């Protein structure tokens, strides 16, 4: 029996930005499959409804790949795929597999010889890089930096030095409720001439993107508390 196909289905980055995420191909795809592997079933079901899913929700098979499932066997998630059914993989927000635990599902799919098809959609990392004005030829995404204040300061200085040495854009994030502390640490740790881009609530109605020197950032007050943000250094 031929395996099914694993479709990687992007999810909106902001609640009011659903219409910016849909493509005709995405809508066609979700209406051809009824099985999903998701990070959060509530979020996933809401998105599918907004995207124009015609299949009744009660007829969907939804596998939760949440934090409680990630240390167990992946076998149950591949039952339908191995039976020849197509399956959709969805993140909590943005593109599956990008700064997302769904990468484990994709890796396992390749091991099992299952075809993987990524659909076009928003990635906060790439949107921030696009809008920053920084080097898009060479860049690195570091995810979360250390929580410890001393280690975090050292890492920021290391990233600043690496960016200068290799002319490489450095991207990283923080848990939204610690964004203001991160911003404070960046302003303390970096040289005045270093360029910083702050990209906040991307695709949302209150989207904020600004690039300027650390020197100029130190003159401003900005509140990033509980707002999804990407930090970029150049």
UniProtKB/TrEMBL annotation:
Keywords: Cytoplasm, Methyltransferase, rRNA processing, S-adenosyl-L-methionine, Transferase
Residue ranges of domain Tetrapyrrole methylase in the record: 45-212
Listed CDD domains: RsmI_like
A biological process term (GO) from this entry: methylation
Transmembrane segments: none
Domain of life of the organism encoding this protein: Bacteria
Record keyword Transferase present: yes
GO MF annotation terms: methyltransferase activity
InterPro entries reported in the protein's UniProt record: 4pyrrol_Mease (IPR000878), 4pyrrol_Methylase_sf (IPR035996), 4pyrrole_Mease_sub1 (IPR014777), 4pyrrole_Mease_sub2 (IPR014776), rRNA_ssu_MeTfrase_I (IPR008189)
Presence of keyword Cytoplasm: yes
Descriptive protein name: SAM-dependent methyltransferase
């Amino acid at each position: 029996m031929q395996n099914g196909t694993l479709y990687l289905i992007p999810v909106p980055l902001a609640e009011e930005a659903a219409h910016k995420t849909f493509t005709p191909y995405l809508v066609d795809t979700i209406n051809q499959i009824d099985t999903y592997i998701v990070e959060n079933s509530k979020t996933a079901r809401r998105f599918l409804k907004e995207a124009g899913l015609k299949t009744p929700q009660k007829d969907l098979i939804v596998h939760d790949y949440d934090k409680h499932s990630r240390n167990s066997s992946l076998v149950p998630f591949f039952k339908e795929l191995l039976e020849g059914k197509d399956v959709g993989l969805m993140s909590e927000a943005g593109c599956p597999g990008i700064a997302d635990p769904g990468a484990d599902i994709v890796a396992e799919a390749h091991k099992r010889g299952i075809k993987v098809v990524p659909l076009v959609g928003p990635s906060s990392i790439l949107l921030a890089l696009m809008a920053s004005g920084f080097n898009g030829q060479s860049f690195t995404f570091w995810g979360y930096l250390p929580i410890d204040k001393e280690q975090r300061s050292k890492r920021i200085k290391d990233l600043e030095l690496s960016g200068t040495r290799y002319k490489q854009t450095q991207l990283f994030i923080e848990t939204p409720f610690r964004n203001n502390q991160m911003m404070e640490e960046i302003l303390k740790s970096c040289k005045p001439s270093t360029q910083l881009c702050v990209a906040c609530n991307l695709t949302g109605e209150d989207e904020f993107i600004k690039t300027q020197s650390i020197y100029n950032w130190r003159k401003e007050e900005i509140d990033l508390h509980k707002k999804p943000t990407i930090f970029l250094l150049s």
